[in-house]
Each structure stands twice: as structure tokens, then as C-alpha cells.
Design brief:
By secondary structure, this protein is mainly α. It is 35% helix and 7% strand. The longest helix is centred in the middle third of the chain and has 23 residues.
Length: 162
């Protein structure tokens, strides 16, 4: 439980903060490297950077687990460069930078599922194959992580066990 003395005005850089009601008042968090204590939701660049990094590492950790890749140490490993994946080199992207790809995927998945009949259909999962110009016969494959877990991962495990 926090003491009343822990509730103060945020110590973040108020001149560069993009929070709506800056300066914020509330319970101060743990000190950053520079010793500054900020309120949850602080919008100064250091606080935003810490939140973005933490969110990105969480997405990497979740992706590693769902892909079935072993961590590089006993504590787990969010950083995809260190994953113990003998087949693929991995890169995980998250946040606003992937929104365009997600929008394209949603349109493709809606079209694929709309073309399947609702009666007597197996309702197969969607997969998108992207064939950009200038790539020749090369392309990209997109699918949901849940499809990877349900279809691809068991097939890979069976293949490598034999």
C-alpha cells in the first residue's frame, strides 16, 4: 500500500510531455536511471520509450512461446535474436508499424472466410500468399499464430521426431 507521501507531482520532463493533464499527480513509480520518478501514464519521451520497449519485449516473448521456440536460457528470452530456433531467423514487429499489414490481413481473411460456404464446410483457417512485383516466383506467407499452433507446429514436431 502506498503512503500519502508517495503521491506527488510527476517528475518527468513537463516541457516535452504529451500527457493531457500534465503535470500529473499521483503515486510515483520507481526511479528511472536518471533518478526521476514519474506517475503512471507520464508522456515525456523517457517514459514513452520505457513503455514502448516493455510492450515490444512482451510481444516478442508471447510470439516465442506460441511459435514453440525454446528460450536461450532458463529464465526465458524475449529478444528474438537469441532464440534457440534451428530452422528460422526471427524478427517480431508490433505496434503502429504493423497496422498496414494487419489491415491487409483483415481484408484477405474476410474475403477467404466469405468465400467458404457456411453449410457443410470444414471452415479451414485462412492463409495469405503475397506475391510482390519484382520478386519473380518468390512471395510471402501470412497466417494467424493460432493457426501456426494448431496446424504447422504439430506437423513440424512430427516431422523432426521421425
Amino acid at each position: 500500500m502506498s503512503n500519502l507521501k508517495d503521491k506527488q507531482i510527476c517528475g518527468g520532463d513537463q516541457s516535452r510531455c504529451n500527457a493531457k493533464d500534465c503535470p500529473l499527480f499521483g503515486t510515483l513509480g520507481t526511479p528511472a536511471r536518471d533518478g526521476t520518478r514519474r506517475i503512471k501514464g507520464c508522456g515525456d519521451p523517457v517514459a514513452r520509450g520505457r513503455r514502448n520497449r516493455r510492450a515490444g519485449l512482451t510481444k516478442q516473448r508471447d510470439a516465442r512461446k506460441r511459435l514453440g521456440v525454446a528460450p536461450s536460457n532458463k529464465f526465458g528470452d524475449a529478444n528474438e535474436e537469441n532464440w534457440q530456433d534451428s530452422i528460422f531467423a526471427n524478427e517480431v514487429k508490433s505496434g503502429k508499424q504493423v497496422q498496414t499489414a494487419v489491415t491487409v490481413w483483415n481484408r484477405i481473411e474476410e474475403q477467404v472466410l466469405g468465400n467458404q460456404s457456411h453449410f457443410g464446410s470444414l471452415r479451414k483457417p485462412a492463409r495469405a500468399i503475397l506475391m510482390p512485383e519484382g520478386w519473380g516466383k518468390e512471395g510471402l506467407v501470412m497466417m494467424r499464430l493460432s493457426t501456426w499452433e494448431d496446424v504447422v507446429l504439430p506437423a513440424m514436431q512430427q516431422f523432426y521426431e521421425e
